[in-house]
Amino acid sequence: MLETRLIKIERNILIQIVWLICGCAWSFQLAAQETDFTNLIENARQNLASSTLPQLGVEKNKLQEAMRTLEHYLNPQGTENGKKWMETLKWSLLQQELAGEQPDGNRLLDVHAAFQQNYLGLEYGPFVRVRDALAGYINSLRYGANPDGAIKNLDDLLTSLGSVLRKSSQGADTERIRQIGTALWRLHGSRQAPKLVSAIRSVYAQPNFLIHVDESFVNQLLGRSVAEPSPVNECVLGTHVTGTACLSGQVTGDLVPNGNGVSLVINLGANFSSNNVGYNRGVLVRSTGAAHVNASKLIVFSPFGFSANPVITSQPTSVVAPLSSNIFSIEHRMRLIRRIASKKAAQMQPAANAIGQGRLENRIAQQFDETIGQQLASANGRLSSVNQHPPELRRLGIPQPSWSVYSTANSVEASLIERADHQLAASGSCPLPRPLSGIVCEVHQSVVTNVTDLVLGGRIIRNEDLDDLAQQFLGRVPDELWSEVEADETWSITLAQYRPFELEFDDGYIKFAMRAVDFKKGDRGLNQPTTITARFLPVRVGNTIHLQRQGDVDIQLAQERGLGVVTMRAFMKSKFDKLFPEKTKDHSFDATRIAPNLPFVSLEHLALDDGWLQLGLR
To answer: Do the Cβ atoms of 144 and 410 come closer than 8 Å?
Structure first.
């Protein structure tokens, strides 16, 4: 007795939940087991071999072949666009270095950085193959140019690695992890000790970004009140019935345990009521109807569904709505007819109720299936590319994170692991007590360090390029950068090849560290390892956060003597005081960056310790 407009569920609700889940990954936590690396290290030392080092000739041939393919692809002699690409990629510099007897590794790293920019097209195969071949050639210069020296250095490295691994982990463990990570970077780049590298990475293989979504928050997205009036106009057992009906209640969601995805039951609990007038051969029957409606539909999100793509499926809607009716008036001008009609109506009432209940249940089920089916079709279309390597990451040489998601009876647990083949993730789960918040985000410091390592390692930052870099990565150029871009005297910073930018979360503080190997100001330079660090206290005021610097920016030079050192130290201090100000701007927490369709959520919890940042949102 209802038209199809009885129930209207917001079209974006399921899509919101899907993108909340997909902006995350699963959280199956295992404690890192103690591993005895003594035998592995000794075996690695015994099996160090110059024959497996990257070979100069082989890697150079691979690079030149990839270059020929890219030149043919771009056709710089025949197209203006091809010429512009050659300039952007510093092609002439690359050719010059390959033609020389002793190629400059720093200049080649500068060319490599040109292939790691956020420009449309750099994710295409011909560009990526040159970038990867160039990385292999740089490694061959680093290790293959002097095989005997490389093997000796690697042997010393393995000896020191053993003592580092025997140390116990404490707090954020940043220094120890840096030493382990440096060893893995060199062993991986030199193609040595693969079993040892694999064993160490297996200890640091836990998710480094996690999100816990409580069922209460899911219901904030999904839950809504239903109060839908509808006209009644149908025929039941020969009686034409008209009138009005209303369904009022609440839509809610119940999570269901699912170890390989997310299962959610969408429920409708509502009361149905109607006020009807029936017409049959001159007899007018006035009645009311009532039913308590329970409708449910199971939705299942599988992160690796058909063709390895995420997919959302559903089961048919189940509806139970026992209908009862009450005839309170039968009208006709003849008393006899009224008595006959009353008796007949009483006899037919059970059958009429059964027919009405069946129609009510079918219409509610059809409405659920059609409405949710449209939403799932739209969501599945948008999910088709979730497991593909995003072009922005591919351009920058960042591997696609591995991720998964599962549901319990009370929450959705999602996590991801972001690391390259030579990098480390977390060694265990977040040790901070989980707050009672609708959403809890847990971020390990390795996420930021790993990404910046891949993008910034060995890169030369020039002041005249700051506007272009800001536009690529921020989409805008902050006002404070323009003064550096337009400075009369040029300057540049060459970042360290491994872990040039490091983040530490410990004891409630955030510590930033930048490592560089060369500074230039005009025609003057300071060619020595330098570490710049700054320590900040995060301050939360309502829904905003700012960082309060603790003490001065610390600049540590390998050598502290000489007039040039004093001059360059003053120059660096002026620059890094701007990069690490005493107090940063207030930043409001914007959850729409996680999922564009999320409702407003406020930041109610912030904690940092032992390498983890924990945020609680409500």
So the answer is: no
